[in-house]
TrEMBL record:
<keyword id="KW-0813">Transport</keyword>
<feature type="transmembrane region" description="Helical">
    <location>
        <begin position="267"/>
        <end position="288"/>
    </location>
</feature>
<keyword id="KW-0812">Transmembrane</keyword>
<dbReference type="InterPro" id="IPR044770">
    <property type="entry name" value="MFS_spinster-like"/>
</dbReference>
<feature type="transmembrane region" description="Helical">
    <location>
        <begin position="171"/>
        <end position="194"/>
    </location>
</feature>
<dbReference type="GO" id="GO:0022857">
    <property type="term" value="F:transmembrane transporter activity"/>
</dbReference>
<protein>
    <submittedName>
        <fullName>Multiplied multi-transmembrane transporter-like protein</fullName>
    </submittedName>
</protein>
<feature type="transmembrane region" description="Helical">
    <location>
        <begin position="12"/>
        <end position="28"/>
    </location>
</feature>
<feature type="transmembrane region" description="Helical">
    <location>
        <begin position="421"/>
        <end position="441"/>
    </location>
</feature>
<keyword id="KW-0472">Membrane</keyword>
<feature type="transmembrane region" description="Helical">
    <location>
        <begin position="84"/>
        <end position="104"/>
    </location>
</feature>
<dbReference type="InterPro" id="IPR036259">
    <property type="entry name" value="MFS_trans_sf"/>
</dbReference>
<dbReference type="InterPro" id="IPR020846">
    <property type="entry name" value="MFS_dom"/>
</dbReference>
<feature type="domain" description="Major facilitator superfamily (MFS) profile">
    <location>
        <begin position="15"/>
        <end position="447"/>
    </location>
</feature>
<feature type="transmembrane region" description="Helical">
    <location>
        <begin position="231"/>
        <end position="255"/>
    </location>
</feature>
<comment type="similarity">
    <text>Belongs to the major facilitator superfamily. Spinster (TC 2.A.1.49) family.</text>
</comment>
<feature type="transmembrane region" description="Helical">
    <location>
        <begin position="48"/>
        <end position="72"/>
    </location>
</feature>
Amino acid sequence: MEEEKRIMKHYGPLAFVLYHAVAFLNAYDTQLLPICMRAFEVSLGLSPSSLSILATVELMTIMGVCPFWGVLVDLYKCNYVQSASMVVNGLICILLGCASSYPYMVFLRIMHGFVLSSLAPVMHKIITDSRSSESQGTYYSINYGVYCVGRIASFYITSTLAMKSILGYCGWRFCYIVMGCAWLIVGVLVYFYMRPTDDTPGVRIFSADASTNEQRSILESTLKILKTGTFWILVVVMIAGDTPFAMLVYMVLYFQYSGLSDVNAGVATATVRFGAVVGSFAGGYVIDACHKLNKKYGRIGIGTSIVVVRLVSSTILLSIPIVNATITWHHYIELILLGATLVITPGIERPVLAAVVPIENQGLALSLIRVIGGMPSYATFVPLIGFMAERAFGYTKTKELVENMEQELRDTNATALRKSMLYVMVVSTIITIISYIGLLFTYPKDARKENVVSSKPLSP
């Protein structure tokens, strides 16, 4: 276990508020596109294939350019990088609210993904700079809980306004323009106030860790990260562990084919996000408590247990068909438990990554994981579930409204979706469990021993 000397930074209460405000806005923004797709179809005449291109180019850009921002975050002060990206994103959102030309929208979506890609490495860097390993899980988890609240808020508010006319304009345009204004305001506040309390404004734009980082080339830093066994296991965990998000893409459709109304199907799916909020706010404290009890195996051990809970809850949920178009109490419990298990990403995987990578390379390390793990995950599981439903379990494409379909066709499609989600979920979760067992062997060896010089916590 290599020892690492760390000088921790102290962020004040306002910086803490802004940190979570950014997470809320990020979640709210990323949820706008899927919610507004029907509004785009009606007002702009876009086809489903055109809409899927908008979503794909944005998401792939978010993943693909992440290392660029990771390097910037490691070299420059976080508030400068984040403020610049947020202000640009605010302008892009306003332009998206005014756009009607499809090629122009595709270009703006690429630019939107480019600037949104900066947020994950910045947020990761701030926590690793300001918190010891004993409390990182709590802060990552709370921030993820706020992120989930942002997605829930975006779902209910935007779905209400997107199809309406506001001041003579389509509601979705109003939503994007207001979103852009919010980014601009918070971006300016981040520039002035999201800085360590001992930082003198305007003295230097380089990070305090940049002098160390400049001694190594980007290639050397990258190779050092890629030689860490724990890093590669975390990549596998990200690929396999993102399956619940792929499942959510089909969950609403499954509930609709099972006879639930659109509203009830949406509420049932949102229950997963509610479980994620509960799991994030409570789970981070539990995870950090386990880490304090055993710094080698505590965090990994509780993580393995959480993934087992995911396996059990998802298996029960998807093994039992919905009867009489009714979601029962045990379905809601299983959905909440499934959502609560999402805490493993912020509460366990982020602190584990922070512990095995030098402090001056945190932004780059997170970015590499998002590229190497995130892109294959997105490109694999969402289409795989759809492919299995059609080819293996007899899902039949139809343009009929669900309520007008014959019962046999509805049952066939519901069963096909349920079984495809079940098999993909079970296999990927077993892979995640095996990966966590592997972390029990690599993490104690790769973790860097902290030598904390100054420990002033990020104010709660």
